[in-house]
Amino acid sequence: MRSSTLLCLFGPGELPVDLAEAMVDLVDAEVAMVRGTWGWALRARTDEVDDDLRKAFLKLAKKHSVDHAVVTGPLATRPPQLIVLDVDSTLTTTEAIDLLADEAGSGPEVAEATERAMRGELDFRQALDARVATLTGLDGDAIERARAHVTLQPGADDLARRATILEIPIALVSGGFVQFVQPLAEALPATFWAANTLETDAEGRLTGRVLDPIVDRTAKERLMLEYAAHLGIEPALVLAVGDGANDLDMLATAGLGVAYCAKPVTAAQADVAISFPRLDAIWALVTTPDELSPGDDAHHD
Amino acid sequence: MTVFTVEGFGNHDHHWFVADHGAQVMAWQPFGNHQRVLWSAPDDLWEVSPDDPDGGVLRGGIPTCLPWFGRADEPLHGTARRHTWERLEAELVDMELHTTHWLLLDGLEATQRVTMTGHDLQVRVSITNTGDQPRRVEAAHHTYLAVGGVDSCRISGLGGTPVWDAAADTVGTQPEGDLLIGPNTDRVHVADGPLELVDDPWQRTIRIEREGFPQVVVWNSRPAVDAGLGVTNDRWDEFVCIESAMVREHALDLASGATHELLTRISLV
After folding, report:
1. Which of A35, A151, A176, B248 has the highest local Cβ count within 10 Å?
2. At residue A292, does pLDDT exceed 60?
3. Is residue A180 domain-shared with residue A265, that is, in the same domain?
4. How many CA atoms lie less than 13 Å away from B87 in the CB half-sphere?
5. Half-sphere CA count of A284, side-chain side, radius 13 A
6. What is the mean pLDDT of residues A242-249?
């Protein structure tokens, strides 16, 4: 019988001294050392992980201040067949609304809209509308200047390169804006993408309105399921990555939900948390085809 | 709503606010609903004066009771809420608020992390025994939920649960159906599922979810029964406490060096 759980310790830079030995002692299974563009990973496969082993494994990770993962389900033994990424503060280090507000000089008004939402005066849609309304009149040049400030997350290129080699499609789902997400999707490249559409007038200036339907927390999860259905795969074969509360539904439904440089409470609800800024660290968690031993049927569906 | 006059972190006008004293969540508001979710009395903020020899107690919000709950030890509800916790992290970005507070307390280390979003409020406390002996720990998130009239509210999710009615000192099983909040409500239920507080006057339902807390305490302050609570008595009609609890026979035996984590999550249905 094949082993059903993947235990993984991983981090940036160099492997801490003695950690491999400590992991071998703990898991009583073969431990593989992997080096990657993000840093290093120690991985072991085992049939059963009980509560005691889980706790001891977490303790070992904490003691050495390294990240850890316990991957169960189909993705413990086979590669994902779709990778879904949040955009603002996940694929990029920037937030699109902030870059546009900088151009419009509307930072204070955006903050005021946020305050009103926190008083309960606005719902999510109204909060988005109120923030976008402060951008009214921005022209194409200003949007282009804002877009030039978009910065990719460290490791984003390495994530995309390896996904291409492994022929794993990428999808981007963003509560940000088409004007920012479309160029990113084309450059990666991403097979699927979705974002909010800022309405423009005949001269290409923002009208301050967002077109329906909007991409919010529930839409992110729904879109992920649609993409999976389009590919004819189960959600259990999807790896999803995000940093914010509006990613939590999507992370919960995916086969492996990865919180990326997220706040502790968000991170605690995901299957795995990456605590250091290397987006390609997802490869520490992924079973690649060359790892599958002869006789393993990687396509047993 | 008044701005809180204690040190802490929140948005500009304190509709979202975590006090450093007790790491006590004092206010949170979901997007799209302007009735407050947590009850407090900002104009009469201290339930026990900050000059009290045991330390002061903030009134309302979500006091974190630790390392004991009941009256077996003094002061009532433990000492954690009477200390000012160290604020390690506080951030309000992209319409989310995050705080981390830390307290060393007589052989225990407590870290409380709060996340507020437009959807939900999460309070996660982790408790580590830093001593070299095992010890018994009680804990509670003593949540004051604001209501449009306590007599018109009901709580679902407790039907069929074992209950100790502390007011009558009787033990029994909660009948199926909703729990109404009567004039002398002080109950400890053994229940780990989600609860809902249905508030007809304000036409909303608050959902309470817990992790690590095996019990629920339901309490309402009535002057005739529980006199001497001041503002809490005067405004008994404005709130009900639905408390995430780990107390009495469900107290935790925490081994030396061990950590236990407890979560309370509040959202609107």
Report:
1. A176
2. no
3. yes
4. 18
5. 33
6. 91
Mutation site for B-interface testing, chosen from A59, A97, A110, A118 by largest number of B Cβ within 10 Å: A118
Residues of B in contact with A124 (CB under 8 A): 31-32, 118
Distance CA B215, CA A180 (A): 48
Question: Do B16 and B103 meet the contact criterion of CB atoms below 8 Å apart?
Answer: no
In-domain check, residue A110: no
Kindly state whether residues A19 and A86 are assigned to the same domain: no
B200-259 per-position pLDDT tens digit? 999 999 999 999 999 999 998 776 666 677 777 788 889 999 999 999 999 999 999 999
Helix (H) or strand (E) segment spanning residue B87:
strand B86-93
Question: Which residues on chain B place their C-beta less than 8 Å from a C-beta of chain A?
Answer: 11-13, 15-16, 29-35, 91, 94-96, 98, 100, 113-115, 117-120, 122, 124
Number of domains comprising chain A: 2
pTM, entire model: 0.86
Q: Sorting pLDDT into bands at 50, 70 and 90, what band is A264?
A: confident
Dist CA B33 CA B48 (whole Å): 31
Are A257 and A199 within one domain?
yes
Query: Do B148 and B127 contact (CB within 8 A), yes or no?
Result: no
Residue pointed to by tokens 């407790």: B158
Q: What are B17's strand-pairing partners?
A: B10, B27
* H-only helix segments in chain A: 19-27, 51-63, 96-104, 107-118, 124-133, 140-147, 156-165, 178-187, 217-231, 248-253, 264-269
Nearest Cα of chain B lies from the Cα of A114 at a distance, in angstroms, of: 6
Burial of residue A157 (number of CB atoms within 10 Å: 0-12, 13-18, 19+): middle
> CA A225 → CA A23, A35, A184, A299, distances in Å?
36, 32, 21, 21
CATH of the domain at A56: 3.30.70.240
Cβ pair A59, A68 in contact under 8 A = no
Residue-number span of the structural domain to which A249 is assigned: 78-95+152-301
Q: What span, in angstroms and rounded, lies between the C-alpha atoms of B144 and B146?
A: 6
H helices of B119-253, where?
231-234
How far is it, in rounded angstroms, from Cα A285 to Cα A239? 10
d(CA B137, CA A91): 43
Reported confidence tier of residue A2, pLDDT bands at 50, 70, 90: low
**ipTM value > 0.90:** no
Chain mean position to CA B194: 15
Structure tokens at A144: 């282009």
Residue B6 vs residues A86, B11, B43, B99, B228: alpha-carbon distances, Å: 37, 14, 12, 16, 24
Q: How many CA atoms lie within 13 A of B84 on its CB side?
A: 6
Domains and CATH numbers, chain B: 8-147+182-193+210-268 (2.70.98.10)
Nearest chain A alpha carbon to B122: A265
**Rounded distance between C-alpha atoms, residue B153 and residue A236, angstroms:** 41
Q: In terms of Cα–Cα distance, which of A157, A185, A155 is closest to A171? A: A185
Residue type, B1: M
